[in-house]
Amino acid sequence: MGEIAIRRAGLDDVASIATVHEAAVNGERGRGDYDDVQIDAWAHPRTLAELNEQIGARRFFIAESPTRSLAYAQLDVGAATVGSIYVVPHSWRQGVRRRLAQTVFEAARDAGLRCVELDSSLNAVPFYEALGFTRLRSLDHTLRSGVVMPCVRMTKELADEPGASSGTNGSTP
Q: Which of 4, 5, 55, 171 is the most buried (most CB within 10 A)?
């Protein structure tokens, strides 16, 4: 696949993040976890202006080859949540998502977090379980359009990760 770089994303990456998101979600068509109505609603959840605002409020990371953006992830330190990890279909099963996840975990530990949670799409549950996440409960996520998408709330303790430090969760009550 060539050289992959992972870096903190900035406001100039908004269009690339939107493109990765749309491609990754559309790649789920026909896999059976979600129907076309759900995928259409999921593929377009935010405007570029909303993404600009989110990048200012959260930590976004982007994985790139020399020629294109391949994946992105976001971490909301205040909520101790991984907001998303998306990879374009041509880069699936090549280790990009795992490397990006490790970058997010390192950033979470550096911010003082001891655990993180996320709402996983059904198709991604096995990946997150392989990373050490455990299932908390099933839930329905209502997208902006009103379309409902079943998900799984998951949690991961970071203390067992390489580089983890002892202490308390860095999120505030």
A: 55
The ranges assigned to domains in the chain are: 5-88+95-157
Class of domain 5-88+95-157: alpha beta
* Cα–Cα distance list, 53 to 10, 11, 58, 83, 127 (Å): 11, 9, 9, 14, 28
For residue 94, count CB atoms less than 10 angstroms from its CB and return exposed for 0-12, middle for 13-18, buried for 19 or more: middle
Buried-exposed string 130-165: b where 16+ CB fall within 10 A, e elsewhere: ebebeeeeeeeeeeeeebebebbbbbbebeeeeebe
pTM of the predicted structure, to 2 decimals: 0.83
Task: Please say whether the beta carbons of 60 and 76 come within 8 A.
Answer: no
> If pLDDT is split at 50, 70 and 90, which confidence band does 154 have?
very high
Identity at 72, one-letter amino acid code: Y
The four Cα atoms 135, 57, 107, 71 give a dihedral, to 10 degrees, of 70
Q: Are the C-beta atoms of residues 48 and 14 closer than 8 Å to each other?
A: yes
